[in-house]
Amino acid sequence: MSVQLGEPTVIVIPTVITDRLILRSWRPADIDPYAAMNADDETMRHLNGTFDRDGTERLITHLIGMWALLGHGMWAVEDKATGEFLGRAGLYYGPGWPGVEVAVSIRRDRWREGLGAEACRAAVTWGFATLGLDEIVTFTNRGNAGMNGVARKLGMTFQGEASAIGPWKDNNIYAITRAEWETRTGG
Length: 187
Prior knowledge:
- By secondary structure, the chain is of the alpha+beta class.
- It has helices spanning 31-38, 53-70, 115-131, 145-153, 178-185, and strands at 16-17, 21-24, 74-79, 85-92, 101-106, 135-141, 157-165, 168-177.
- Keywords: Transferase.
């Protein structure tokens, strides 16, 4: 039997840079700090509960794989000034989702600095500019004041409530269209 090699498949994950953040591809060094986030009860309170390092590795490979399958996914979020891993942000689409969702999770010790809103703003801008989407949504637990606030900061409009989307319960759904985003951001 003869074996020949074809052209390799390359997964393209763009890097997006904001004033304070770098949204980039995942690295092996991200696993431990992300696992620590995923093991924190308060961080994971509205994200269907904690999970361990093995679960974190599976999630990271899933998030990377979305780039190959869908052309978008979740980036690792890095502090531009220090290089520290801060969390994840990006665009996600799963079975039963009401549309392509912008989502974020930032380390708890960095909450209330506006980093989640900054990362989501970059993801929405990239999504409309690159993917040609007409609308981007987010859904948040009704009790998650932080993410509900991020949705409003982005100019997203409350669409209603959903009892369940995927494994998440008691959600608010927000959305913004491309035209609304362009009007809001001037371009």
